[in-house]
Structure formats: C-alpha cells, structure tokens
Sequence to fold (399 residues):
Amino acid sequence: MTAITKLRDRFTEADIDHEIVIMRLDNGEFFSLSGTAAATWRLIDGRRDRHALAAAANAEFDGSECEINADIDEFLVRLRETGLLAGG
Amino acid sequence: MTSPVPNRSIATDPRPSGPPTVKTLAERVMVRETRVAFGPVAKSLSGDPLRPASWQVLGDEFLLRGEGDHYFHYRLGEGITIERGHDADLSEEALWLNGTVYAAIASLNGLLPIHASAVALEEHVFAFTGPAGAGKSTLVAALGDRGLPMFCDDTLVLDLSDPDRIICLPGHKRMKLTPGALQLTGATREKQVSRTVDKCYASPQAGDVGVALPLARLIFLEVGERPEITPITGSERFVRMQDDHQTAHLFAAARQFDRAGSFAHLSRLARQIVMARFARPHDVGRFAAGVAMVEQYITEVATEWDQEQQP
Fold:
C-alpha cells in the first residue's frame, strides 16, 4: 500500500459552508463533496494509505466497519477515475 | 478621442441639495469614469464588425453599438465617448448608458455588477435577483410602500476591494415598472422609459438610499406553489453565482479570468454572500402575502443583528 495523494496540480477547491467544491483545471468540471465525502476528502493528507484512511474514517464516522470500508473503497475509485488522486 | 462638449456623468439622480455624504473610493471611481463626451469613435475593437445591440471588450476598452449607428466607447481613465449617427435612437441612449455601458465600466474597474434590485434596512442591503420578469423591481416597489427605501433597481454594483466584506454601491438607475407592476404596487407613474420599452419610471414610495452599504442578503426570486423563504447553502451558493445574465458576461470579459481565477472569484462570492430563495406563486391575489413575508424576513434578520450587538 502506498500513501494516497491528491493531484493538486490538476484541480482547485474551496470550502463553502460544510461542503467542498472542486474544479478540474483541464476541463472545468465541478464536483461537490458533502457529509462523509467531504470528511473523507479532508482525511486524505498525502501520508495515509488505504488502511490508515479507513481506520481514520471508522474512528470519525458512525456505522459498521464493513460498510464504512466499502464506502471508502468506492469513493477512492471514483476519485481516481476523475483524475484527482494517485496511490493507495 | 475627441471631447467637444463639456463632460457630464451618467448619474441620473444627482442630489445637490441633500445631506452631505461620504463617498467610497469605488463610488468616486464610477463618477469619474462615467463622464460623457461626444465625438467620433472606432467602429470595432477586434477588427470584426459590431452588429447592432452588441459589444466588444479589448484590454481596457469597451465598445457598444446601440440600434443603428449609435456607438458608446469607454477606455479606462478616459470616460465615455458617444457617437450619434444619423439613425441613432436618442430615446434609448440613457438606457444604454445606465445599463450595459455602466456595467462594463464597473467591470473594467474591478467592480462586480449583478442583475438585482434592492432595498435597505438598518444600514444593510437586501437584494433580489432573478431573470428578467422575475419581479425584482415590483417587489422593491411593494416594499417601498411598506416603508423600505430602494437601494437600486435592476443593477447592483458590488465593491469587492475589502476581502472581509462585500459593499454595495447605491443605485444609479431610476426605478422602472411595467403597467401591471404600477397597478400592483401603487407606485407613482412617471414618464414612459422609451418609445420601445413598455415600462414607466416610478418614484420609490419610501425614497432611496445614496450611500454605500454592506450586502446582507441576496435573495433569488422563484415561482413556487406557496410563499416560502428558505436558505441557500453550500455548493448551491457557488452554482447560483454562475449567473447567466449579461452583467456576468461583461465582468468575465473585462477581468479575463482563467479557470482558476474564475473559480476563486466565484468561491469568494459563494462564501461571503448569504443567500436565500423566495418562492411564491404567480398569483396577483397572493402578492401582498408574499411581500409581507419578505418584509418580515428582512425585519427578523435586522433584529438579530440588533440583539447580537447588545452587550
């Protein structure tokens, strides 16, 4: 497992209320993250790998460990598909 | 650029006899930059011919062609030059000057024009926005009948120079209402706006405000089944600031943002402007109830400030 890192040269982001709005710089596409998605995005600090991220998420969110881990995996796949993340 | 006649400024409602007021730097910039002269101007900035009722921005210059051979040129620091061709419709001149030209000058000077009408209460501005025909002016006129002075009609210019707050410049336009809005609000009818525009100028019942004030709320006017005011939060604020009105296009053209710059601009607005939506049915019989709801909302916001300021 390698640390999960945000590809910061590919996007810009802003906190608005409790949400995070992200824009890809190459095509102007927007994403909005709220709730656990925004919290998970904030946990991606460039040092945690997938296991450490899941552990941090389980410590922060309510729910079963199995469900949270599955949600985290799905979220990471989605972020990699959109070109915002590397590693993991 | 020639300047054959004495300069005057765009402002339609000077107040030489009113109480002394302190103008902000942005207000002084707009007064200085909107001085008008008459003479020949270039017919294109880009080299492409300019069609009637269209405009171009290039660097620090703006060029608008009205109907026929009626041109309005502006360059930063030089003010406006108008060329009146033989078929220029002079009844439209003030509309062009106070509308698109004013918005372009604001944009080229770093001020953000938005498509909104507004009232003032407790030294704050409550602005109403929405597409043409959404009822912005009508609502402001109706609130005037309830004692709230008008701050602006149709265009609200925002000064973004203070990173901590957004300041509104007092309106430069007279209120314009349709015959239906005049009847609905009881506002006093004045002369017709122009030969081609089915609106009349009207006097705001509670007067207007001539000093710059901070923006308290930006309220989006929508159609709904029942009158309701709800907050707009999070990313929806960001989406809402992607206004499709001409004022937004002028600002984008003048500021020449790249994607990251545009994102930073919209993000700032979304973070700092408190927004709400006012939904109500298009039903004349329920108009007064909706106006009362808005008045109560505004009053409650102002009351909260009073309570916060008390020790």
Remarks:
- Chain A touches chain B through 14 residues (CB under 8 Å).
